[in-house]
Structures are given as C-alpha cells and as structure tokens.
Specification:
The chain has 272 residues and is an alpha/beta fold. The chain contains 12 helices and 8 strands. The chain has helices at residues 4-22, 35-41, 51-60, 81-92, 106-115, 138-154, 170-175, 186-189, 195-214, 230-236, 247-256, 258-268, and strands at 29-33, 65-68, 97-102, 119-122, 158-163, 180-184, 218-222, 242-245. Strands 1-2-3-4-5-6-7-8 form an 8-stranded parallel barrel, surrounded by 6 helices. The radius of gyration is 18 Å and the shape is globular.
C-alpha cells in the first residue's frame, strides 16, 4: 500500500503527465526486466515461474520490449534463457525490442552477438554486486568502451551506456559512439518518502538528459522506477525513449498480476 505522501505525489504526477501527453508528447517505451522472475525460478530446480511465459504475458499486455541481465554466475537469468527469449520475440512479437545488459566481457559480447538483440546496454558491474548501482566513469573508461561500442554497432546492435546523473560527463559518453545513455535512477527511487529530494533528483536526471539530447543521443532510464515516480521523470524528460523496469514491476505483479501491472506502468509512461 502507498503511504499518504506517496499517494498524494502519485495523484499529482498522474495529473501532470496526463496534461503533458494531452499536449502531444510521445509516450515512453516500457521494457520489462525479467531478472526477478528468473531469480524466483532459480530458488528451486523447477521450470516455473517461466521466464519466457512471463515475457509473453508482458508483451501481450502491451510492453514494447524485454530486458535481461545475464550475469556470469547466472544468479537469475541463465545463459539458456537468452536464445529462448530471442525466439519468443522473433516468433510471436517481431515488433518488440530485446535489450541485453551487462558488463562487456568477451563472454558477454559473444553472447550478445549470438542473440542479436535490438539493444545492448553496457553496465559497469563487478560480478559480486547484488545489482547495478552506478554509471560508467566515462572520462576514465572512454578508451575501454569505444572499441566495444564499435564492435556492437558493427554487428547491427544499438548501444546504450549506463550513466549517472551528471551532465558534465555526457560528452565523453557521446564520444564513444554509443547511441544512447541509460540514466541510473536508483537515487531517485530512494526518495520515495521525500518529495523535495525527489524533485532535486529529477532535475539532475533532466539536466543530464538535456545534455545527451543536445549531442544527438537518445535517453533511456532505469532502476527503482515505480508507477508512483515514473510520471514526474517522464514529464521532466520530453523525448525519453525507454524505461527498463524489473524490481518494482515484479513487486506490483504479486499484487495485481503481471498483465495488469504492465498496463499500469504503461499508463504511467503515457500510454492510455
């Protein structure tokens, strides 16, 4: 249940985004991250819940894509899930996007080239991290990232780079040749009980998106996004291309079911 502060904020944000999309702004694509579904499955040596099955439900409910993060220890997404989800999209949802995110080791890059997703998102994760919790240091890692971006683009795969809310670093990201940045929204998600802090975080994210758009990059966003906090972010970043959401969406699915949860998130993204 939402607390009173969050509930009030949700009402205000929904009114804001409704007014914005009534004015002709484009809605944001929703990519459903399936990691949490896979992690639940992996608690038992059983085939359920089915990652492919829940991916199908999400796409049938209107999601524009699916996201996975196959880590080296396969703690949630298994390497065997990768081609199965590719087949789901190719066979049943050919207009959907497949986004694979991860740290760009040779093993990961080979997996991506075999799967041919529409998008790869490079994240600077240590294998021991529980979840992604920071963006790239683009100035320090520019030379590392540039040839990897080129390799993916030569394979016909769109490249997005995980980025902190810092407009001063975006030029370095653009110089790698990447097509997009994905704004790390974890700090924003952590302000769920603090409206003033949330507004400050949204503005930082917005300024970073403004800088990326000025350089011709598209902007994605992800991490700890919810039905309550999405509208303010979408309202501040006209032209936000995609949000990738897993934890909050899966938590809501326990209450509302996956299909209805996807529809609720789509509404928060401006699809209505």
């Amino acid at each position: 249940m939402l607390n009173p502060v969050a509930a009030t904020g949700l009402l205000v944000h929904v009114r804001t985004i409704s007014n914005m999309f009534a004015g002709g702004a484009m809605p944001v694509d929703l990519s459903v991250n399936l990691n949490a579904i896979a992690q639940l499955r992996n608690r038992r040596d059983l085939p359920w819940p089915s990652v492919v099955g829940f991916g199908r439900i999400a796409l049938l409910a209107g999601a524009q894509g699916l996201t996975i993060h196959p880590r080296p220890d396969q703690r949630h997404i298994r390497f065997s899930d990768v081609p199965e989800l590719r087949a789901l999209i190719d066979d049943e949802f050919p207009a959907a996007d497949y986004n694979i995110e991860g740290y760009p080791t040779d093993e990961f890059l080979n997996l991506v080239e075999d799967a041919q997703p529409e998008q790869v998102t490079f994240v600077p994760d240590d294998p021991a991290q529980a979840t992604s919790d920071h963006g790239w240091d683009f100035a320090a890692q520019h030379n590392f990232l540039t040839p990897l971006v080129a390799r993916m683009k030569n394979a016909g795969i769109r490249v997005s780079l995980f980025a902190d809310a810092d407009p001063d670093t975006v030029q370095w990201a653009a110089d790698t040749g990447a097509d997009r940045i994905e704004l790390y929204t974890g700090p924003y998600g952590g302000t769920y009980d603090y409206p003033d802090a949330a507004a400050a975080e949204v503005e930082k994210l917005g300024r970073t998106a403004d800088a990326a758009h000025a350089l011709g990059m598209k902007v994605n966003a992800g991490h700890d996004l919810t039905v309550a906090n999405l509208p303010a972010l979408v309202a501040r970043i006209p032209g936000l291309a995609e949000v990738s959401i897993g934890h909050g969406l899966t938590a809501d699915a326990l209450e509302y079911g996956m299909a209805e949860t996807v529809r609720r998130f789509l509404n928060a993204c401006g699809h209505g």
